[in-house]
Write a structure and sequence with these properties.
Length: 273
């Protein structure tokens, strides 16, 4: 099994688990969320994150592409801002696409690699991608393809993780191509500018996104017990595991990037590989 296939299987298994569905309130999300607006649950934080990204889109309306849409949480939230017939979600997992089709009816869902977008030039007004580009082979090629399929004046908005400990065994196991290794957020912005994007804005939202997620994950088992959905004994065991995972996520994340960029109105061609 290739690292790419192993990653897909791992995500499919995680997203099918009852624990995942309860943690995310069966919302179809699988990200850290944005905790700067007093979100009380993880699904609320994830809604806020999508809304925060949509606010950064320069040219509202028209077609939007949801890259690595997963089970459709982000796509469903986008229907609050776009007509479903103008929303396309892509993913490499048929299992996740099937869940997304049920969760966001009326939207279009396709099995497609983010680095080889099978769309015409200048087709979308916006491209959105939540916490996935670090897996793409490569992130830079995804930026290039996003530039190509965006209309002049269109926006790319995304969140992404810059991991620590980016050694070859770590990279292979987690499907983190070494070409995606970046030392800081400034380098992330430089990659976007190198593709021809302008109005590039980046921020490190590690505290408000990952920090909020870690706190919620640590206390979630106790919240489940209080709701009568988890026994005291299980909540103690689950809480110990949750604290370990929370510490792990904090240790591997160098920075959590929220970024927006715009394709120039003059139709400038993207940089070539």
């Amino acid at each position: 099994m290739t690292p790419f296939e192993r990653m897909k299987v791992a995500y499919d298994r995680a997203l099918a688990s009852p624990t995942y569905r309860r943690l995310y309130d069966n919302s179809g999300y699988f990200n850290y969320g944005y905790w700067g607006a007093n979100a009380k649950t993880l699904s609320e934080a994830c809604d806020t994150l999508v809304d925060h990204l949509v606010e950064k889109i320069a040219m509202r309306g028209g077609r939007v592409l949801d890259v690595a849409c997963g089970p459709g949480g982000t796509t469903k939230r986008l229907t609050r801002h776009y007509s479903p017939d103008n929303i396309t979600g892509i993913n490499i997992s048929e299992a996740q696409l099937a869940a997304a089709r049920e969760r966001a009816p009326g939207c279009t869902f396709l099995n497609m690699d983010a680095t080889r977008l099978d769309f015409p030039d200048a087709h979308f007004n916006a491209v959105i991608c939540v916490e996935a580009a670090h897996h793409f082979d490569t992130r830079e090629q995804f930026f290039r393809e996003s530039f190509r399929v965006l209309k002049p004046g269109g926006s790319l908005v995304l969140t992404d993780v810059l991991p620590r400990g980016f050694t070859r065994p770590w990279s292979v196991y987690l499907q983190l191509p070494l070409a995606n290794r970046l030392p800081n957020i400034a380098s992330f912005a430089e990659q976007l500018e190198g593709m021809g994007f302008t109005d590039v804005c980046t921020e490190d939202a590690k505290k408000v996104c990952l920090g909020g997620f870690r706190k919620y994950l640590s206390r979630w088992p106790e919240l489940e017990r209080e709701k009568g959905r988890m026994s005291r004994g299980k909540s103690v065991v689950t809480s110990a595991g949750a604290r370990v995972f929370a510490a792990y996520f904090g240790a591997i994340c160098r920075a959590y990037v929220i970024a927006s960029a715009r394709k120039p109105d003059n139709g400038q061609s993207p940089a070539r590989a």
